[in-house]
């Protein structure tokens, strides 16, 4: 008789679920609220903009990307990972407005204030 056959069905399900979770090796975290992240109003607005325009291609809290590079710590680096451009507000504003490589530009759909709010959020990553 195996170990799993000797324990109750409820405990068996728990053991199996824990094993699955452990083997998954998933680095995904529960989405934190704006308050848990300590975001101010501008950063929270930037997060909403990020969710609407950026999240489909860029991971905010991972260095792994989706279609584009992950943005975790984007402003903590001296240079952007793919382009080698300086990681500063001017360069990212330019990229957001006009696009770069496979990324479309959003200068026609975002206001200057929305871009500033987005950058404020990106600084928190």
How is this structure best described in words?
The chain is mainly alpha-helical and 125 residues long. The protein has a single domain, classed as Cytochrome c-like domain (Cytochrome Bc1 Complex, Chain D, domain 2, Orthogonal Bundle), CATH 1.10.760.10. Helix content is 47%, strand content 0%. It has six helices and no strands. The chain has helices spanning 3-6, 9-24, 34-37, 41-54, 89-98, 112-122. The termini are far apart.
Entry keywords:
125 residues; single chain; 47% helix; 6 helices
Topology:
Blueprint: H1 3-6, H2 9-24, H3 34-37, H4 41-54, H5 89-98, H6 112-122
Count of helical stretches:
6
Name the shape in a single word.
Answer: globular
CATH topology: the name is Cytochrome Bc1 Complex, Chain D, domain 2
The total tally of domains equals 1
Nutshell version of this structure?
This protein is mainly alpha-helical. It is 47% helix and 0% strand. The protein has a single domain (34-122), classed as Cytochrome Bc1 Complex, Chain D, domain 2.
């Amino acid at each position: 008789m195996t170990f799993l056959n000797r324990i109750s069905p409820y405990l068996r399900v728990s053991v199996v679920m824990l094993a699955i979770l452990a083997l998954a090796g998933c680095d995904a975290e529960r989405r934190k609220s704006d308050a848990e992240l300590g975001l101010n109003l501008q950063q929270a607005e930037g997060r909403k903009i990020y969710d609407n325009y950026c999240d489909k291609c860029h991971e905010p809290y991972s260095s792994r990307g989706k279609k584009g590079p992950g943005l975790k710590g984007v402003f903590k680096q001296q240079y952007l990972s793919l382009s080698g451009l300086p990681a500063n507000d001017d360069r990212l504003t330019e990229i957001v407005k006009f696009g770069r490589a496979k990324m479309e530009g959003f200068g026609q759909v975002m206001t200057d204030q929305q871009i500033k709010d987005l950058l404020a959020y990106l600084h928190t990553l």
